[in-house]
Amino acid sequence: MIVQALIQAAGSGTRLGLGPKAFVRLGDCTLLERALRLANKVAASTIVAVPRSEIDRANVLIGGTGVTIIPGCSSRSQTTRRLIAEATAPWLLLHDVVHPFVDHDLTERLLCEAQRSGAAAPGLHNSEFLYHRSGALLHSPGDVLIGQKPVVFSREAVLAGYAASPASDANADPSLLDILERGGVRTSFVPGSSTNIKITTEGDLRLAEALIAREAAQCRSETA
Predict the structure, then answer these.
(1) Which pLDDT score is estimated for 170?
(2) Angle 104-117/31-42 helices, nearest 10 degrees?
């Protein structure tokens, strides 16, 4: 498979309160550097979308051969569409810097499943009862999947999905999986991980730092 990685790194980080999330440090590097490390293991090249005001900063941090940095848009779905418009490879891996604990094993499983089905994403079964705001029970534990990142998919399928989407989508925030389905491909799920967390709030960052500290402690014990 010829794979191109697309990295969403254009978030402003308003809820986290530490500036653009791409440049928040976790352990020995920023979230952006951590995402690029993952991309470099599986992709021939990478396209990264960052806030327009941060392009120079991103170039200093990760610029180089095989990395293209572009300005993101005002919404996640618009940024995704711009990344895909810049892509040229037959297979695309869409990742987001806010998921810092994706490992190489997961990406390999996603690549294998996507090659079989056309698109693949990690999914984690819900472990709690889920309710509507009215109090009505919607799902029991294990009934639904929580989608995670990254997503691997055919460029041909996603372009077909965009072509089949209504013009109103330009002002909406459709799911990438919905776009792929419009292009004739239903995404398959591989088992996700409870540690594949999404960093949105300060509490999420504290949890991520605790996971990094645990990783470091395990490494020290293994080399002792």
Answers:
(1) 64
(2) 50
